[in-house]
Structures are given as structure tokens and as C-alpha cells.
Design goal:
The protein is of the alpha/beta class. 34% of the residues lie in helices and 14% in strands. A 5-stranded mixed beta sheet has the order 1-2-3-4-5, sandwiched between helices. Helix 1 packs parallel to helix 4. The N and C termini lie far apart (33 Å). 24% of the residues are buried.
Length: 143
């Protein structure tokens, strides 16, 4: 399928991140554990009620890598694009997962997300990420 004419969005940026992970799995085998929990999106009222009964929760970050690296027990990334903002429920999840021992980061765009994933997957035991836990990495402005 040709996706060359698709407008960039949070969804297309996330697709690029997942494609990058699939491509780099031979080098970083633990990337096979990275996943997205599809909690967002629009649904009809009946489906929303059923999903809530089944455990869907607002604010769950977009990407999770449940693999310990460095001093962290896992990685959570909330992916944003353009002028997207963290919702209070997303901030609550990120803060909670950070307190539990995960590295959390809000990444604007593909480039920032891939930088975080690659740094995380290469951490040695006991080491920390180069950016603060809970950081928000914005896209660079084109001059």
C-alpha cells in the first residue's frame, strides 16, 4: 500500500516508529516486546462502555517496552505530533509509571521517539538515560 500522500499525524509518526522497531529487531531483539495498547480513538457509546468494562483506561501511554534496562524496569512513551498536548490522565499515567520504576518520556515525532528507544535499549545495568525521567522532547523548529 502506498502511503506517500498521507498527511503526517500522531498515527503516522507512530507507524514509522513501529516500522523502525521491526526493521531493527535483528540488531535489538528485545524490540519484539514493544507494543501499543489501542486505548484512544473514537468509538460509539456501546463499544466504549464495553471496553471500559473490559479494562480500557484513559491516559495509558502509546508505547510500552516491558524490558528492564539500566536502572529502569521498563519504558513508556507518549507520542505526540505538532501541537498535541498531554491530557491530565496521560500525565497521571506517566507520573505513576515513573514512580513505579519505569522510564517515561513524551516524544514529539518519530525522531525523538526513536532516539529514546535506541538509547534505552542500549543502557548498561545501573545506568540512567541522558534526559531526565518524565522529559518532554519537542520537535525542532525548522528555521
Amino acid at each position: 500500500m502506498n502511503r506517500g500522500n498521507v498527511l503526517r499525524s500522531e498515527g503516522t509518526e507512530q507507524e514509522k516508529v513501529i516500522s523502525w522497531c521491526y526493521y531493527h529487531e535483528p540488531k535489538y531483539s528485545d524490540l519484539k516486546w514493544l507494543y501499543h495498547c489501542p486505548n484512544g480513538g473514537s468509538r460509539n457509546k456501546t463499544e466504549a462502555v464495553n471496553l471500559k468494562r473490559q479494562g480500557v483506561k484513559a491516559g495509558v501511554p502509546d508505547l510500552h517496552l516491558p524490558v528492564p534496562r539500566g536502572r529502569y524496569i521498563g519504558l513508556y512513551i507518549e507520542l505526540k505530533y505538532n501541537k498535541g498536548r498531554l491530557q491530565p490522565s496521560q500525565r497521571e499515567w506517566m507520573d505513576g509509571m515513573q514512580a513505579a520504576g519505569h522510564f517515561t518520556c513524551t516524544c514529539y515525532g518519530f525522531d525523538n521517539a526513536v532516539k529514546i528507544i535506541e538509547e534505552y535499549i542500549n543502557l548498561c545495568a545501573g545506568t540512567e538515560m541522558s534526559v531526565p525521567n518524565g522529559a518532554i522532547l519537542k520537535q525542532e523548529e525548522n528555521g
